[in-house]
Protein: Acetyltransferase, GNAT family
Organism: Vulgatibacter incomptus
Amino acid sequence: MDASRPVTLHTARLRLVPCSPAVARAADSGGAAAVEALLRVHVDPSWPSPDLREVLLGHAEAIEADPALWCWGLWLVLDGRARNLVGDVGFKGPPDSTGTVEVGYGIVPPFRRRGLAVEAVRALIEWSDIQPGVEMIAARCFASNAGSIGVLEHLGFRRCGGDEAILEWELLRPFP
């Protein structure tokens, strides 16, 4: 599968689509309402999160400059019927020289505690498993975020470092 071509990933309850530069720019400038108008799906007013908003323009610019990065950035997580944007998941770039990619994710508050983050991250793990050059998936989360810790543990990530505030995780090949 060519990581430079946009694809849609399907799970039992979700659709994951790479975030286009147009959607990233709309989210940055107009927030949930602008994305809702563009995609014609319900977008909770809490999306995008402040952390995500900080990277949206950079995401758009990176894809515009190098389309090969299309699937190595932000993906939108939609419910299976594509009526709601329930969150986001993605990589912080393509594999580095050691074959490591870092994954991040967020589910909007009304859709949390339903296993959607596990399902979305698992879809990206399966997708990255067939991409050349990926040997390890890294993740970081706040030490106080029990939900994210549970997601990573459920998916087989192993804690490999961090400090009192931020925990570091890794998932090595073969991916579960």
Q: What stands out?
A: The mean pLDDT is 94. The chain has one domain: 9-172. The domain at 9-172 is CATH 3.40.630.30 (Aminopeptidase). The chain has five helices and nine strands.
